[in-house]
Structure formats: C-alpha cells, structure tokens
C-alpha cells in the first residue's frame, strides 16, 4: 500500500507539469551498483572503493588549454551538472564510510569536495533560472519587460559559467581529482584497488573488517538519517526557505545513504522509501529554484509592479511545493516498518 501511495503521488506530480526538467531525475544520476548480495559479502573497505569508483568515472575531462577555455566559458553545462552529482555522491559516501577513512584524508577530501560543489552551484542555478523557471513565468505573464530580464539573466549566467569553468580548469580541481584517485586506489582503467587506496584506515582502527561490522554500521546510518528528517517534517509548513533548504539537504543525505547501503534494505521497504525521498527532493528542488528566481528579481531593473507580479507567482509555487513535499513525506515508512525492513547481516 505504501508503495502504491508513493507511486500515485509521484505520478500526479509528474502529470501536473510543475516540476522543472532540471529537478527531475537525470540519466547522469543513474549509477549501476554491484549486485546486492555481493555487496553484503564485501568488507567495508572493498565496498567503499568500489562505490567511489562509480562517480569518479563521471568526472568530466579537462581541456588541453584550460586557461583559455575557462576565459571563454567553454565548458558544457551538462559537464558542470555531472560534476555536481559526482561531488554530492562522493560526499555522501565518505560520510557513510567515515569510520573506515583516515581522519586527515577524510577532512581534506570533504573540504575540497565542498569547495568544488559550492563553486559549481551558481552556474547550475543560473542555467535552471534561464531555461526552466523564467520561461514558465514568461508564458503566464507575457506583458512583463522580458528583454530587460533576459539581459540581466544572460549576464548572471555568463559570470556564473565563467567562475565554474575557471574552477573546473584550475589546478585545485585537478589536484582534487588526483587526490580522489589516490585516496580510493582508482587506476587508469577506472577500477578500484583497495590495496592501493591511501585513505583507508588499518582494520584494527575501524569498527571491523568483517561484513557483519558493516551491516551493523549500515543499520545505524540508515536509522540516523531517517530520524534526522522528522523534526522538520512534522512542522514543514512552518519552515522558512532557509530551513526548507536545510531539510532538502537532509533528504539528499538520507537518499544517497540509502542508495549506498541498498543491500541492507529489503526490497519491500527499499523501493517506496527511496521513491519517497526522491520525490521529496524533487519538490524541494523546485521550491529552491523559485527562491533563486526571487533573489535574482531583486537586482533586476524592472518596474516594481512587474517584480511584485512575478514574486507573487513564485510565492504560489513555493507554497504548492511545500504542501506537496509535506504530503509526500507523510508517506515515509514508520520507524518500526523501517527497522523490520533492514537486514541484520
């Protein structure tokens, strides 16, 4: 029943046409995981390097002349999007498996991934604003001074892309890529070798190297990510946009953790749980896009009445997305159901 409700909600949202394509699931986010039974038999170190190799294969290549290309803003926006996905997944992965990582390596990798993710963010926001959010508003309000808005957004988009391209072509990004390959023992062929991974702790300093230790840790992580959602979920309608953004981050962490620890969730609970988190993330992403648009409108040289008109429509989108997200999150399994759905070994 839970699965049917979640699918029905997802289908209704998709049919409504209010979800932006940028917020919808992309092919770049689909990662083929190893067989679940094999993953449960792996040690934590083996599983960590295996999973880390997957997003690193999506890492975009750097051009031969990075400085000139960065100035020209020559990077494909899709490459920036893929890089953001890869950094998010790697950050979730090192958080989940932090007990098996050397603290110095963990702190360094996390800091560099945060830097890269934050650098790529404005470019992605500007792309969504230009290609999704504003075109929808243009259809509803054709009398707005759109040439002035288009000029402002074009400048905003160009500046954000230039900064992202500069970061992507920088020595710091290349050093980060090399650091990740070294940390997880990724060879030139893209495959991981845990014996060559420099970031792994000695087994004696970890919760254990046997699969049973990883199973116990997986249950603890899944439980913690699940519990973290509820203080905000219970009062979602009362949260401001900053708090809703923080909730979106928690939903992402819960979703990516559940994906990394898929083998320890039984199928009966895994599918509805992950579908619910994905739908909630999509709705909260739509809300965030509307907030980004409102902030951009503040700096645009258009009549105040036109700005108020657009802000009013964006407020409606925010309210609707909040209401739908609250409805979707109500379909999360209760704690007892989730506990029964987790494998013990």
UniProtKB/TrEMBL annotation:
Coiled coil: none annotated. It holds the Pfam family CHAD. SMART domains: CHAD (SM00880). Residues 41-334 form the CHAD domain. InterPro entries: CHAD_dom, CHAD_dom_sf. PANTHER family: CHAD DOMAIN-CONTAINING PROTEIN, SLR1444 PROTEIN. This is CHAD domain-containing protein.
């Amino acid at each position: 029943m839970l699965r049917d409700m979640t699918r029905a909600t997802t289908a209704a949202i998709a049919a409504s046409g209010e979800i932006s394509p940028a917020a919808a699931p992309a092919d770049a986010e689909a990662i083929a995981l190893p067989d679940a039974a094999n993953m449960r038999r792996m040690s934590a170190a083996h599983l960590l390097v295996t999973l880390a190799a997957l997003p690193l294969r999506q890492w975009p290549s750097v051009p031969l002349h990075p400085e000139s290309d960065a100035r020209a803003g020559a990077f494909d926006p899709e490459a920036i999007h893929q890089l953001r996905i890869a950094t998010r997944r790697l950050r979730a992965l090192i958080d989940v498996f932090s007990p098996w990582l050397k603290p110095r390596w963990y702190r360094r990798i996390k800091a560099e991934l945060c830097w890269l993710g934050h650098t790529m963010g404005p470019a992605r926001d500007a792309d969504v604003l230009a290609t999704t959010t504003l075109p929808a508003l243009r259809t509803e309000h054709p009398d707005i001074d759109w040439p002035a808005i288009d000029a402002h957004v074009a400048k905003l988009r160009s500046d954000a892309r230039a900064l992202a391209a500069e970061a992507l072509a920088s020595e710091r990004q290349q050093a980060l890529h090399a650091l990740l390959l070294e940390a997880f023992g990724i060879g030139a062929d893209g495959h991981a070798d845990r014996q060559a991974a420099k970031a792994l702790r000695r087994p004696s300093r970890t919760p254990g190297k046997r699969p049973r230790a990883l199973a116990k840790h997986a249950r603890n992580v899944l439980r913690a990510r699940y519990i973290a959602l509820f203080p905000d979920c219970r009062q979602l309608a009362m949260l401001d946009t900053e708090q809703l953004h923080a909730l979106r981050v928690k939903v992402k962490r819960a979703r990516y953790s559940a994906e990394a620890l898929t083998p320890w969730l039984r199928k009966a609970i895994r599918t509805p749980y992950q579908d619910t988190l994905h739908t909630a993330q999509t709705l909260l992403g739509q809300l965030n896009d509307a907030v980004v648009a409102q902030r951009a409108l503040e700096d645009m040289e258009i009549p105040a009445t036109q700005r108020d008109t657009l802000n009013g429509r964006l407020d409606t989108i925010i309210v609707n997305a909040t209401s739908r997200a609250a409805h979707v999150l109500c379909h999360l399994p209760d704690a007892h159901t989730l506990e029964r759905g987790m494998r013990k070994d």
